[in-house]
Amino acid sequence: MAEKKNHFAFTEARIKALPTPPTGRAWWYDSKAPALAVCKTAAGSTSYYFYKWANGRPARMLLGKHPKLTVAQARDAVAKHMGTIAAGGDPQEEHRARHHEPTLQNLWKHWQLYAAAHKKPRSVAEDERNWKNHIAQWAGRRLGTIKKADVQALHSRIGTEKGIYAANRTLALLRAMLNKAEDIGHRGANPAAGVKMFREESRDRFLQPGEAEAFFRALDAEPQPFRDFFLLCLLTGARKSNVMEMAWADVDLLAGYWRIGETKANMPVLVPLVAPALAILRARRETANGARWVFPGRRPGDHLRHPERSWSEICTRAGLSDLRPHDLRRSLGSYMAGANVSLQIIGKMLGHRTPQATMIYSRLALDPVREAAERAATAMLAAGGQTKLLAVEPEKGGADNGTQE
């Protein structure tokens, strides 16, 4: 049976020899795979198409351009689409869905809105850095094209080039973002869900007794407010970010408590203030001049930020090259442990235990915590030769010491 004028068995040679139409487009159809068509334009472009009636309407979809796509590859693509139709599917609808599938950039925009409403500003800033430094290269990728192997390769590359901590934080962000992909219409599985993080070694550095004297001498030479700031980090065992955000409204100088409204564990914590910490706060209260923050920042109405330079200078003077601000928090816990304080009380002081009871019961349980913290603070200050702070006696109830209503 003779071939129709525009129907023939496609070969590479015959496709290459197709004439260029003077205007518009010209179509030819494969006699071996009837749903395969090739189109050549007046500009000389040659493309393969899938052409088939499905669900009562014609489905015409671009498969690829010649010669990048071969005749054999085009026939394989047609066979795949025909299988979809046989199973009751619609290749054109699936193609349209993939074409309109959200990209990782779309998901990032959605995540930014979510994070702004549910995360702390410093966590939002960390997300921004990880996105910009490690994930933004995938911004234009459709979510359905991101596979587990892609995520594993990204995680491994960051671990090699930037370190395991950067790799793990990036993986955590990508995993959390993809968990929200359904919010913007993506129905696929999370390709980051099964990727294992690198094992991280827990840091156990703290201020050693033999380092205390040099540290306190270097701290005494630091101008305010950083001297008081780092002393309170040490004496309260609180995180640097919480001390920077310490507000007078949360400090009860009469009762000797500081309420941290929001912590890393997403729970409020009452921190008992030892006598030296109270002395620092009372002195600062006298010169607060109505400020909201215990440590006001440079900008009006803002709190202290970025004490890194001051910390670096303190450590340089003390000859301590591997001590971090967070190690001050660990130092209080370590000295408490050295004083044979139970792990339960240490966890209570540092806000590690998740409270199931109400705040009133938490407050009633703080007396043994205060005793333990007093012993630890005394040991640390004695090791550093801080006789002036050691001489401070805790005040008993009576006069108004700046308690906030």
Structure description:
The chain is of the alpha+beta class and 405 residues long. It has 3 domains: 7-99, Double Stranded RNA Binding Domain (2-Layer Sandwich); 104-184, Orthogonal Bundle (DNA polymerase, domain 1); 209-390, Orthogonal Bundle (hpI Integrase, Chain A), CATH 1.10.443. The chain contains 17 helices and 8 strands. It has helices at residues 12-16, 71-86, 91-99, 104-118, 121-135, 148-161, 164-179, 209-220, 226-236, 240-244, 275-286, 308-318, 325-338, 343-350, 359-364, 367-383, 387-390, and strands spanning 7-8, 25-30, 36-41, 46-54, 57-65, 251-252, 257-260, 269-272. Strands 1-2-3-4-5 form a 5-stranded mixed β-sheet. Strand 7 and strand 8 (269-272) form a beta hairpin. Helix 6 packs antiparallel against helix 7 and helix 13 runs antiparallel to helix 14. The longest helix is centred in the C-terminal third of the chain and has 17 residues, at 367-383. The protein is rod-shaped, with a radius of gyration of 33 Å. The model is unreliable at 354-365 and 397-405 (pLDDT under 50).
